[in-house]
Amino acid sequence: MSAAMSHTDVGAYALGLLEEPDRRAFENHLSGCPACDTELAELRGVAATLDGISRIPEPAGGPPAPPEPAVISDLLRRRIRRERRHRAARAMAAAAAGVVLVGGALGTGYTLGADRDRTASQEDAGTAALLRDGHRTSAADATTGATGTVATRRTAWGSRIALELSRVRGPLECELVAVDRAGRPHTVAGWAVPAAGYGLPGSARPRLTLQGGTALRPREISRFEVRTTGEFAGSPRTLLTVPG
I need a surface site. Which of 70, 184, 231, 237 has the fewest CB within 10 A? Predict the structure, then answer.
């Protein structure tokens, strides 16, 4: 058996159609031919599929002559090529689906970002409205230089509170505290002050505005205090006291 004939016998060998001498010759060839070994591994799946198909009854005139091994190998190679094309098409479809999913996720991200921006704008508008229409009290601290205004509005759950703060230098971590008539503090909100602060030379923002809340009703609040907290505070101190 020539080397060329051995290459064409892969399909016939996979289906068990080779005569004994040709089978032994092909096995000798297979031990030194990685290409045939790889193709045989692919063809065995097809052969296993064919083994599960019941035999077709022989025609009345007797069985037809079996096809040549080369014909069988050619047919099986065509089948393998079709399967490879289908696998490639499925891989491309999966890649395209991945692009669509990523694109959808990015689109969702932009939408969510827009929603966050819209929510922030609504919160800013709500804080400005509360500072404009709520019950307002203002104060300035001669020692720290801080100035601020607090506005309150009664709600079903307590009080909504807005703060406008200026002339505070950072870096600081601060909190707004509502002190009740018994002297007990209730935290309303917390925030970080940048190094340049608010309302000072070199500050990017003239003032800080924020909104928070407490379970206390307005008439239960004695005063508000802006206090320092956290690692930048050193000893905690009160920057500003605003009447309730």
Answer: 231
Condensed to tens digits (0 to 9), the pLDDT of residues 65-76 reads 655 555 555 666
**Can you give the pTM of this predicted structure?**
0.51
Residue 98 lies in a domain: no
Dump the DSSP string for 69-125: HHHHHHHHHHHHHHHHHHHHHHHHHHHHHHHHHHHHHHHHHHHHHHHHHHHHHHHHH
What CATH number does residue 232 fall under?
Answer: 2.60.40
- The label of the residue with tokens 């907290």 reads 229
**Rounded CA separation 119/104 (Å):** 22
Tell whether 122 is covered by a domain: no
Q: Could you tell me the residue range of the domain that residue 10 belongs to? A: 3-85
Report whether 192 contacts 173 (CB < 8 A): yes
- Relative to beta strand 147-154, strand 185-193 is unpaired
The count of structural domains within the chain is 2
Q: Give domain status of residue 203, yes or no.
A: yes
Q: pLDDT digit string (tens) for 200-242?
A: 998 989 999 999 999 999 999 999 999 998 766 567 899 999 9
- The CA distance from 127 to 134, in Å, is 10
pLDDT at 31: 79
Taken in order 14, 17, 22, 23, the sign of the CA dihedral is positive
The reply to whether 149 and 237 lie within a common domain is yes
Indicate whether 72 and 158 sit together in one domain.
no
